[in-house]
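To whoever is covering the structure queue this week,

Two jobs came back overnight. Logging them here so there's a record in the thread.

Job A:
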Amino acid sequence: MLNPDKIKISAKNYFEKVRAIRQDLHKHPELSFKEFETSKFIQQHLKEAGISFTAGHVGTGIIALIKGKNPQKKTILLRGDMDALPIEEKNIASYKSCNPGIMHACGHDVHSACALGAAFILNDLKDEWEGTVKIMFQPGEEVLPGGASLMIKEGVLENPKVDNAIALHVFPSMETGKVGFRSGMYMASTDELYITVNGKGGHAAMPSEYVNPLIIAAEILLEINKRFTDLYSLKEMGGEKIPTVVAFGKIEGKGATNVIPDKVELAGTFRTMDEVWREKVHSELNTLVKTISKKYKIDSVLRIEKGYPFLVNDAKLTKSSFLTAQKYLGNENVEELPLRMTAEDFAFITQKVPSCFFRLGTGNKQKGITSGVHTATFDIDENALEIGMGLMAILAVSALVGE
């Protein structure tokens, strides 16, 4: 296999370039499926490096191909997502967002920069490894239906057929220099829940003339909260405890102190890690809403926007990647990760091909870099870029030879 030291040297040599790329991406964030300038910027760097690619996938997506010796042997996919979030950045930095109300607050600038860095390294050393590396720069990770699912439909896993896939994600609660892996179930599926409770409005002083949808909505919420906990034991499935979250973050009833509204609208999320259980909960939620509504002789509507599936890391590939990371970074810098109830659209890919999704430590307590993702002060210790691009490159090569 390619000597890891060569990858380390290459990653060090590319560090300043990749840091500048990350800062440029961070300075010019674009929302999901609108990453037009981001896509042009990445394409320009691929052209300058002499890396072949096709563009325009799902509008802004890019697929780059790097062929080593014997390119038909095996194909590994690396993923970098490109979209930002509708957040007004509060950081004070030379690379602070120039686009009002838009910010790379989830680290996708880092993901794309690391994927580009890995591409540069692998392209320079392509005479020293066998197989093909396909690099996917995808739009729209943050919103349904997820850019990964749409790029799969457009054939990103074919021509050449992808054998394994690898992706990383920033992890601000982990110190820079460290990475984390988890084999098997790692992240939850995610569905959006919308309930409209249709009551009968009226003057608050005349209770006999209205049916208060706020009371009905409250009963629905309390019953859901009672039934579904974060570790719900499902007897029909052998007593297995399946991580489950059903939570509502929005309730809106446009009434007043003495005005009962006609309807109340609720919005929430459902997350779990089993597809059979997922469908069963959908059914149970529908039944619950209908039963309570029938009790009050009103109609309510539950709309479920089915989102990303659960993310599962292939046991063999993840074990191999874990060991490779230990060799590359040292045993003390590679950790086992706990389950997470957050979601990620790379899950669509993990459902199709054996994959490994790992976490890249980007925090630095001494420097005060501790803000979480999806916050207005999120940032990274940029030293993580050298680790991220190098590790993506070595993991790709390792997967190509089956180590």
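Job B:
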Amino acid sequence: MTTVTTRPQEERKTKFQVWRSRHGWTAGVWLLLIVLVAWYAALLPKFGAFQINSILKNSLPLVFLAIGQGVVVIAGGIDLGVGSMMVLANSVAALLMEGQPFAMTLLIGVGIILGLAAMNAVVGWIVSVSGVPDIVVTLATLFIYGGLALLILPGPGGGTSEGMRWMFTGSTSGVGTNFWPPMIVLLLVTVGVAWFMRRTRPGLSLYASGSDLNAAYLSGVNTKKSKVLSYAISGGLAGMAGLAVLALTNVGDPRFALAGQKTLESVAAIVLGGIALTGGVGSIVGVVAAGIIVFFLDLLLVAIGLDSNTSQVVQGVLIVVVMMVAGLLEVRRRRLE
């Protein structure tokens, strides 16, 4: 009798341990986001649809960049050019979309996303063929794409259609209480990329390449193709981020400082989201919550009375702590394997 009753318990315990090891960090990040939002809501005299809309729409650019960065890091690389790609997409879109109807701006947006995906696929090909480390090649693209943005749009300008603004912000003016459009866009992108990464052969090949490049190659994975694919996805999502910025502001902004800031924030978001910088480990779903947290943290710190300079220091310290914890957990995981 004892043997019969303990085996199911042991089996349930084992299943829980497997779930915790695979999804525990992701669940923890989403729980942290819920706690922070609840804390923020308690600090405000009124918290409702307007605040939810504001958090969602303003976090979209960083979340898109973080998802793209996450795909590249899972595949064993890193993309320091994502911020400049966002700025480039924003500048080109603002220049071409100004005065155009919604249907035309939608076509232009799709063209920009596909164009950046193709451009960044070339970057992935250069990395895989040349053998030059990703960090070196993509650091160069950070400046190249930023320079192209300034050549195309030397200063703030341009615009987009009301329909494009509504799609990313829930309002034709960019300000409102309708949070469903940005939420749906975020869900579609998240579900689409997460499904691709976990349920398709090319997506699983990215995990395999990031876990062990030589083992993946010997197993029949086309590692060069995987590298190109990961960078193409990152480029397309950077294009989405650029369109989201344009929808928020209704103006193109070619500032290089913005590119550098968003690149660093995207790296912070993937680490907080549970993606190991060594590659092969992590979930895109966790990165989404982490991207919102990285954006949202500044609002929370200001709400509790810290000035913007102090809040930047606190954010930096928290990010360092999270990266240290993630590193220690990764070392522990590898020792247990």
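Note for Job B: Residues 49-336 form a domain with the ABC transporter involved in vitamin B12 uptake, BtuC fold (CATH 1.10.3470).

Please reply-all if you pick these up so we don't duplicate work.
Q.
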